[in-house]
Every structure is written in C-alpha cells, then in structure tokens.
Fold this protein.
Amino acid sequence: MRCLNKDFSAGIIRFNPIFILLLGLCPALAVSTSLDNAIGMTAAATFVLLGSNIIIAVIRQYVPKQVRIPVFIVIIATLVTIVDLLLQGFAPALSAALGIFIPLIVVNCMILGRAEAFASKQGVSRSIMDALGVGIGFGWALALISLIRQLLGTGSLSFFGQQLLTIPGLVEEPAIIFLFPMGAFFVVGLLLALFKWLEAKK
Amino acid sequence: MRELVVIFFGMALVNNFVLVRFLGLCPFFGVSTKLTNALSMGVAVLLVMLVASAVTWPIYHLLLVPYQVEFMETVIFILVIAVLVQIIEITIRRTNLTLYRAFGIYLPLITTNCAVLGLAFINIRHEYTFFESIFASLGAGIGFTLVLIIMSGLRERLEITDLPHAFTGTPIAFIIAMFLGLAFLAFAGMIG
C-alpha cells in the first residue's frame, strides 16, 4: 500500500512532468490561454496516459523487447484517436479550441516516457497509480499556468461560462500580451525560476 | 507562385513553429546550447519535414480519403514518420558516414518531435495542395533552424554571464524565447 502511495505522489511534485522533468511542454504552453482548455487538455492526456499504462502493463510480458517502442506508439495512437473522436462528438467547442494538440498527444514525451520507464516494468495497479499521479501533476501545472495567463490577459476568471471573479482596473485594460505566445514563455520561465529557487532554499 | 511565397514566409517567420505555434519545444530547449548541435538538429528536422510532407500528403488524399478512413490519420501518420526516419537514417549511414556522425542521435529523436507530425496535420487542416505543402514544409523547417541557431548563439553568450542561480539554464532560456517571440511579432505585418 505504501508502495502505491509513493507511485501516486511521485508524479505530482517531486517528478512533476512540466516543472521538474520538462516533458510535455508543447501542449502546456499552447493551450494554457484559459482554464477550460487546460482542464480539457489534462482530461484528454490523462485518459490516454491511464489507458496506455494499463494496456502496456497487461501485455508487457508478450511484447518482444526489440519492437516494444513501435507497439507502445500504436497503442497510444489508437487511444488518442478515440479521445479525438469523443471530443469531436461530445465537446466540439473544446475540440476546436485545442486543435491539432489533441492528435499531437501521440508524440507527447510524457506518455511514451511513462510507458517505457514505468508501465513496461511494473504491474497493473502500480501503473494505474503512476498514471493518475503524473496526470494530476500535469493538470495542476497546466491549471496554474493558465490561471495566471487568463487572469492577467483578460482581467477576469471564468470557468466553463461561469464568471468567477474580475479584477477592477485590469478588466478595462487587460495585459493582452499574456494571451500571446510570448506571455506563455514569460510565465513558464518565471515559474521554472521560482521552483528552482524553492528547491535551492530547501 | 505568389501563393507559394506567402505560404513559405508565413510558415518560416509569421507563424514560426517554435515561437508562435509551440511545436518542437523539446529540441528547441534541449539542443540549443551549442551552435554546431543546433545546426545539425535544424537540418535533420528540415530534411525529415520535407520527406514527411511529400509522403503523408499522397497517403491522406489518395488512400485515406477515397476509402473514407480519415479518422486513421493519427495512427498512420506516426507510423509513416517513424518508418521514414529509419529509412533516412539507414540511407545516410550507408552513403555518407561523416554526415551520419554529424547527425548523431538527433535523427532518431525526430520521430517523437511534434513539429514533424504537427506539420503533417497542418498541411491537411489548411487543405494545401501538394506543392503548397512542400513549400509549407520548407518554410517550417527553415524557420525552425533559424530560431534554433539564433537561440544557440544567445545561449553560448549566456554561459559566461553572471545570473541569479534560480534563472540559470532553462528558466532564462524561456525568458529569452519571450524576447525572440516579441521580435518575430514584427513580421506579422509582412503578410496581410
């Protein structure tokens, strides 16, 4: 049980995919313009990660070592196609907002990395905990980036159509640059520096 | 002809793959520490992009569309790109060993580079013709190489700069990427 807890918590902070391992950066920067997109992206990526970790952990004994990477990629690509079609069918607005970054989950190094480093060596239950931990780690990192960008870029915070809060003064003249690509680089750069500083202080 | 030029510069400068579209960030931050490495990586990506566009376009339009299996594009494209990278690697190793050594590990790494797969999707989503997609891949590859070279030059200078500890390495690279992005924003007015 303690082992499962450790697998679960590793991905959240200590080996956070975005802030510590710098994996899966492309979607993290590209879709973090609003909280809705961040949550949609996290849900899609976590579904694929969970599915691929489970399937790979189940079949790991039957896959010859030499061809394991192509097998993993085909499994991940199939799951990505399922997510893509589900989003197109049930959440067309979200699907349009995320654009090509949904099919590009295939080449997200975070997912292939977990398949190769964890699921191909461990059992099913540990792989599930690992996938959930990494998914949550990816999720809060994405949510934090998009929270800052949305708050400063629009002066307000909305969540699936619901207005949560507005900053008087900033709403009339928002710092739109935070919604631009440059804003993403700036915010992530400062957050990375912050985490490095916290690490050094410890 | 004018269309092709617009697509080329649009891909290379206005909608630069790294700075505006956020594709290929892993090699951008991973390989941009030395000028020679950046050049090898950039040329390798350009080569794979060109071949991948030339192959995925016919597969989509002559195979997937007539049989109405467009939903298979993700699976097919990633497999085709993986095979292509292998073929290019073997061909280069057999014909030019110096070039093979120069590329090193960068060539196999391109399989999981989202810039190449992303370009294949962009070609389809924008409904480019075959020649347009070739020009788009040329523009994307050259734009990627250009930014990678600029970045590596800047980071070589940073090596000898005195920085606060928290900003050394990747964080300052992100801040520099922001300034590069601001500079590239000026190209937006070039194509109306």
Notes: Residues 2-148 of chain A form one domain. Strands of chain A lie at 156-159, 162-166. Chain A has one domain: 2-148. The first strand of chain A starts at residue 156 and ends at 159.
